[in-house]
């Protein structure tokens, strides 16, 4: 089982959107996924309430209950636990990073978002967790995205797959769906599938390196 934490203290960066859509991308590959919602605002849980399908499973947890929730997920043979965290720096955020095998830091290509990244990266580095950045809500092209990518690449690995600003993400969320379900042939579905494939490869490579002590 792999534990993936979506984290950044910047509100609205796309943690919940990525958590849900990555979970559904993993399900498409026949994996069993549990989303743990650590956000007191519970926007993943809100999405789950609107959803008809029973999977991916979702549970709302307080940070003190996180280790137990993870142990139960392990016992129940989930392949992935995806943790959605609050958009503020809270003890629960640190607990979610500590629990992670792999962290995903969503970031919009704006100066304010970029400035908010270093404290999250500092916590991740202190806890020695592998992490990648994913640019989110980006324009389809342009200088702004390239500059943001250059800035983030000084701090760590940046996903080559970007999540573009598309209405499909909002409409799918409102319908209790992931974009892969909402518009299977759409551009959002295609980029989420690509992103998930890239994340899995990266995560497995890091895990292999850690297990064999290569770095
Ligand atoms: N790629 C996208 N295109 C268009 N809208 C998006 C995209 N990603 C996210 N959004 C919208 O932006 C808003 C914020 O996204 P989301 O809730 O995923 O961020 P968050 O990091 O979880 O926020 P918080 O810190 O408040 O939990 C939501 O309304 C969401 O629907
Ligand atoms: Mg959220």
Provide a descriptive summary of the structure in words.
Keywords: Hydrolase. Pfam families: CbiA. The chain has 215 residues and is of the alpha/beta class. It has one domain (2-212): P-loop containing nucleotide triphosphate hydrolases (Rossmann fold, 3-Layer(aba) Sandwich). It has helices at 15-28, 43-49, 66-75, 91-99, 111-126, 143-153, 167-174, 179-182, 187-212, and strands at residues 2-6, 33-37, 57-60, 80-84, 102-107, 131-135, 157-158. A seven-stranded parallel β-sheet has the order 3-2-4-1-5-6-7, with helices on both faces. The two termini are 22 Å apart. The model has no long low-confidence stretch (mean pLDDT 95). Adenosine-5'-triphosphate binds at residues 11-17, 39, 43, 87, 136-137, 163, 165-166, 169-170, 173.
Mean pLDDT: 95
Q: List the ligand species.
A: adenosine-5'-triphosphate, magnesium ion
Q: How much of the polypeptide forms β-strand, as a percent range?
A: 5-15%
Put simply, the count of helices is 9
Order of helices and strands: EHEHEHEHEHEHEHHH
């Amino acid at each position: 089982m792999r534990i993936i934490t979506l984290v950044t203290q910047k509100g609205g960066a796309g943690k919940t959107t990525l958590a849900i859509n990555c979970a559904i991308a993993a399900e498409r590959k026949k994996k069993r996924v549990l989303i743990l919602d650590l956000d007191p605002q519970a926007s993943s849980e809100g999405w789950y309430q609107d959803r008809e399908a029973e999977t991916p499973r979702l549970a709302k947890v307080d940070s003190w209950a996180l280790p137990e929730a993870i142990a139960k997920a392990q016992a129940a043979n989930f392949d992935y636990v995806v943790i959605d965290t609050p958009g503020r720096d809270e003890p629960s955020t640190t607990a979610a990073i500590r629990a992670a095998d792999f962290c995903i830091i969503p970031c919009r290509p704006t100066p304010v978002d970029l400035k908010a990244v270093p404290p999250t990266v500092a916590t991740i580095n202190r806890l020695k967790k592998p992490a990648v950045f994913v640019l989110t809500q980006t324009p389809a092209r342009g200088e702004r995205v390239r500059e943001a990518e250059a800035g983030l690449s000084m701090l760590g690995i940046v996903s080559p797959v970007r999540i573009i600003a598309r209405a499909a993400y909002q409409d799918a969320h409102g319908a209790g769906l992931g974009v892969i379900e909402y518009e299977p042939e759409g551009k959002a579905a295609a980029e989420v599938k690509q992103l998930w494939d890239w994340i899995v490869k990266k995560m497995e490579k890091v895990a292999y390196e850690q297990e064999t002590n290569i770095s």
